[in-house]
Request: fold
Amino acid sequence: MNESVFTILILVCLGIPIAGFVILLLLGFFGKEFDYLQIENKKMEMEKELHRVEYLQLSQQIQPHFLFNSLNAMLSLNRLGRNVDVEHALEEFSKFVRYKYTEKDALVPFQKELAYTSHYISIQKIRFGDHLHLKYEIDQNAEPTYLPPYVLQTLVENAFKHGLEKKIGRKELTILLKRKGSWVTLFVCDNGPEFVVGESPHLGVGLENIRKRLTLIFDLYTEVSISREKGVTIAKAVWPYTPEGRT
Reply:
């Protein structure tokens, strides 16, 4: 055996244990990396579940206000002896309750939300009669969008509770849905008296509820705000255009 062959054998004998040791280290590393990924995935699943629970709690939080306000509107009709109107209002109210106990999705079509909210508006229309004037401006490019349930309802409810119920004479409610690029904007406007947000606790709670739910649902830009321009209160909600109910 010549010297070069002997040298190669020595190197091979030394290299095999070293290679084995390196392989064991790599296996340990990849095993730890795999465990780390499993932990991260589990953490993400837990966070998603916490978000889902928080979202459901927020959705349930706003529903009692709608119930109480609807019942108060019907009580007002009853005190005035308008029994036929009370019966009609109860029919609209029953349609709302049916929606409330069947709607479980995180996102619903805008048309479904509008149809649901129309039951509340119908009760108010019965209550205020010709004093209440409605206006709808729905952008066809925005109409297919999905949104969290009760967003429109909350904005409309606030418009009545904190504005139109206190307005003497002509009461105007306007609902606008517009789309600009990848974002949709919902406006609910009323000509009720000016208010201070701090003096209307539920108004603040309602808007904050919408803001939190939009943030939980969408990873992109969202906005919820309220302003006053030329004697009109404007509530606004912005979210990404979502035509298929998926975020």
